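Internal tracking record. Fields below are filled automatically when a chain is submitted to the structure queue. Please do not edit lines marked as system-generated. If the sequence contains nonstandard residues, flag them in the REMARKS field before resubmitting.
Queue: standard
Priority: normal
Entity type: single polypeptide chain
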Amino acid sequence: MSQKNEILPLLLTVWVTSALLGGIAWWLLNKTFPNLNDRSNSSSSSNNQISETLGAVKNVPEGLFNYGGSTTWAPIRKEVDFIIQQVWPKFRLVYTDPTTGTPGTGSGIRMLIENQLAFSQASRSLKDEEIQRAQQRGLTLKEVPVAIDGIAIAVHPDLPVSGLTITQLKDIYTGKISNWRQVGGPNLAIIPYSRRKEDGGTVEFFIDQVLEKADFGSNIQYIYSTTSALRKVSQNPGGIYYASAPEVVPQCGIKTLPLGKSENKLVAPYQEPSIPSSQCPQKRNQLNELAFQQAIRAQYLRHNCVRYFALI
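SYSTEM-GENERATED OUTPUT FOLLOWS
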């Protein structure tokens, strides 16, 4: 399939938001994540590089630091947090879920403002009202761009659909398309899953960039988390869900669909050829890093801007 730059995967910026106590986040991310830029090394080699970089950081605080926020960060947490604990056993990180509501960017920033967290991870920038609420509590929030992430679309592994255009994806989630035969599939009702808008930055990004600020259709089934959504998609042949590509692409029980601006220019989020779910977990689909890198370069050239990114 085509991987030309003009066919951009859905990209969003991943941030870390820190308050006064969360100044640790600045050196933690600045010192650590640049080593993840080179994904061509083996996992053990990358881990060694991260460990060496972390070990060179001075004046590391001791104690227990609660943090929370975006579920998009799950792959980064899985790869990095364990190494942090090995290098700095007295610097302890604990991911903290909200006591009410669902985990996500919005709830993480709220908890940070309420002094429940040392720093919060996010998949969007701060909102003006969040900055104002923090100022009212005497806090100055700081956000650090860390990574460029991509969205992938998950469907049932047996669904005979080769891909979707961005317009078709929009029409599915606004309720204009309700049956898979309308996009070349079987006569099967579409069951679109989503987290609620207030749950996370990924949802807000999806509404803004894919739905073009339109409302979700009445056909949406809202779920608590990406884990529960993927479980539902694996059980329902008509199901569809969107989430961070590194979270979705390697999963068993689902398959991810190529996306594009037109049907003849689709980009797969996985490295081809696709590995069927029957071979998982012995083999897993891997992220199509090249396509994301090309999209990032094209986006930077078009907007003439540069940001730090580590993952992908």
